[in-house]
């Protein structure tokens, strides 16, 4: 079977460049790469199609073709869409019609069309819908996160909606998501909560997807257990990481505390990840400070205690607040921050810190699924994770608990949850490792995807439900989608 992954934003290359360094290079790229590679290993021919970028600041993404080392059957294909330069995801909408034209031309030149298309995020979704309109190739939609939930988190209302629209293009995103939901053969979600809460939001009522609930398939993502494993994979790399951590602890932590375990936070600096909430919880709890140090891994910031003037404004604001809290709670010598550059380095970091009886904590205000905690669990770190979102289904079921759920808005609850991990360390370590092995592997994810895809291809049910909005076909002639439409569906009173 020939399967295409559509992901115009973020981009892919064999070195996973810029992952976690930019908002467009987040978890969905990990998801697409790992799922595509797992399908390739199962014998499918897989193309990841993304946007070609010819920009001296992004040299990794200029070639038309790329590949992953030691992975057969998987191609990375980059096709033009709009200007050559890198564009953030909010500015891609008006160029997707050109991208779809180029995808059509590419497969005409190759002499055959794929059997099925999987689409990711709203821009991939509307692209899949446009291809479906022209070819009848069925497609699936995986939203990863939806625009309406982002509007909720940002507190969009009648007073600020015009400003928010100018920055995030919510009209285009939500219209694209609605069309993708309506016209897709399958909708893949990571948790039942994602299906029941995100896709039933009032902004999506009337799209037609809720009349076809059989479209939905709850398929949790997996972990690359060849990277994230409790076992040392390369002795030399592990020793290098051990030396790095020893050096950083000696640099940042006072001598009397250097043998303590750590509370590890490892996610990009983003307000949604709520690093500030974790630092507050650590500062408020003397018991936690007696038990452990706090380690925050960063990307590209070697020593924020000396200088972080070069980072982006949003990251600077977070670090400013963290530094202020460190001084307010007298945490100098108890907090360590340093840069980790790749997934393999992160896995080595997790393994070494697990050897030191450390724990992982993620205090996000909301986490759609929570792949980062599963990666930490797979390396042997017990985890305390936000109770808001998908982690509720990951860390607890009828058979037991596999980590601790915390309220990120309650510092005492966060501190108490982390202390619970330390008090029951071996139990949560064992539970976490077994949970990943039994349920969260990419091979299992790929097999479940393929079962649903094969059925959709065989049945060939017609899902031409919502027409493609004219904006996506002729953006030069219709340069916007009216904001009144969004106000009507999003801000209406139920």
User: CATH fold name of the largest domain, please?
Assistant: Rossmann fold
Side by side, the strands of the main sheet go: 3-4-2-1-5-6-7-8
Mind telling me the CATH superfamily name of the largest domain?
Glycogen Phosphorylase B
Can you count the helices? 19
Largest sheet geometry:
8 strands, mixed
* Total strand segments: 16
What does this structure look like?
The protein is an alpha/beta fold and 494 residues long. It folds into two domains: 2-222 and 443-490, Rossmann fold, CATH 3.40.50; 235-439, Glycogen Phosphorylase B (Rossmann fold, 3-Layer(aba) Sandwich), CATH 3.40.50. The protein contains 19 helices and 16 strands. The chain has helices at 27-41, 96-110, 121-135, 147-154, 161-168, 170-183, 192-198, 235-252, 275-284, 286-291, 313-328, 343-355, 371-378, 391-395, 411-423, 425-439, 442-459, 470-473, 483-490, and strands spanning 2-6, 45-51, 65-66, 74-79, 116-120, 139-142, 186-189, 216-218, 262-266, 293-298, 335-339, 359-362, 383-386, 396-397, 400-401, 404-406. Strands 3-4-2-1-5-6-7-8 form an eight-stranded mixed sheet, with helices on both faces. It has a six-stranded parallel sheet with strand order 11-10-9-12-13-16, sandwiched between helices. It is globular.
Summarize the structure.
The protein has 494 residues and is of the alpha/beta class. The protein is built from 19 helices and 16 strands.
């Amino acid at each position: 079977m020939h399967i295409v992954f559509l992901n115009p934003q973020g981009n892919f290359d064999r070195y996973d460049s810029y992952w976690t360094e930019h908002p467009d290079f987040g978890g969905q790229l990990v998801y697409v790469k790992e799922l595509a590679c797992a399908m390739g290993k199962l014998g499918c021919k897989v193309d990841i199609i993304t946007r070609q970028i010819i920009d001296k600041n992004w040299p990794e993404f200029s070639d038309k073709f790329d590949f992953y080392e030691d992975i057969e059957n998987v191609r990375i294909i980059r096709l033009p869409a709009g200007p050559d330069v890198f564009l953030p995801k909010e500015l891609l909408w008006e160029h997707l019609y050109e991208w779809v034209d180029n995808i059509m031309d590419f497969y005409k030149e190759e002499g055959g069309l794929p059997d099925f298309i999987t689409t990711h995020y709203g821009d991939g979704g509307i692209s899949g819908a446009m291809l479906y309109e022209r070819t009848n190739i069925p497609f699936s939609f995986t939203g990863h996160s939806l625009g309406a939930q982002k509007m909720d988190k940002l507190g969009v209302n009648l007073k600020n909606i015009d400003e928010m629209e100018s920055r995030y293009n919510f009209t285009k995103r939500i219209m694209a998501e609605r069309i993708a939901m309506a016209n897709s053969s399958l909708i893949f979600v990571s948790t039942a909560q994602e299906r029941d809460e995100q896709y039933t939001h009032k902004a999506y009522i009337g799209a037609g997807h809720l009349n076809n609930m059989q479209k939905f398939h709850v398929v949790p993502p997996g972990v690359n257990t060849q990277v994230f494993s409790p076992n040392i994979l390369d002795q030399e790399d592990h020793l290098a990481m051990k030396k790095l951590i020893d050096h950083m602890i000696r640099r940042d932590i006072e001598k009397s505390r250097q043998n303590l375990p750590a509370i590890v936070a490892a996610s990009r600096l983003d307000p949604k990840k709520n690093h500030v909430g974790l630092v507050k919880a650590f500062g408020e709890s003397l018991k936690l400070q007696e038990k452990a140090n706090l380690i925050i891994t960063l990307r590209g910031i070697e020593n924020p205690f000396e200088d972080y003037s070069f980072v982006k404004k949003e990251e600077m604001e977070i670090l400013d607040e963290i530094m202020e809290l460190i001084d307010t709670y007298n945490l100098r010598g108890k907090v360590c921050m340093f840069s980790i550059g790749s997934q393999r380095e992160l896995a080595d970091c997790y393994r070494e810190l697990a050897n030191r009886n450390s724990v992982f904590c993620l205090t996000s205000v909301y986490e759609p699924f929570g792949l980062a905690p599963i990666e930490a669990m797979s390396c042997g770190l017990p985890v305390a994770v936000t109770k808001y979102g998908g982690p509720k289904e990951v860390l607890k079921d009828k058979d037991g608990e596999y980590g601790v759920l915390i309220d990120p808005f309650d510092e005492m609850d966060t501190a108490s949850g982390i202390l619970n991990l330390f008090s029951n360390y071996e139990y949560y370590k064992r539970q976490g490792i077994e949970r990943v092995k039994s349920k969260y592997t990419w091979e299992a994810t790929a097999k479940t995807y393929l079962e649903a895809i094969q059925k959709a291809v065989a049945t060939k049910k017609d899902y031409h439900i919502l027409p493609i909005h004219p904006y996506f076909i002729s953006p030069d002639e219709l340069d916007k989608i009216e904001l009144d439409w969004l106000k009507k569906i999003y801000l209406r009173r139920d």
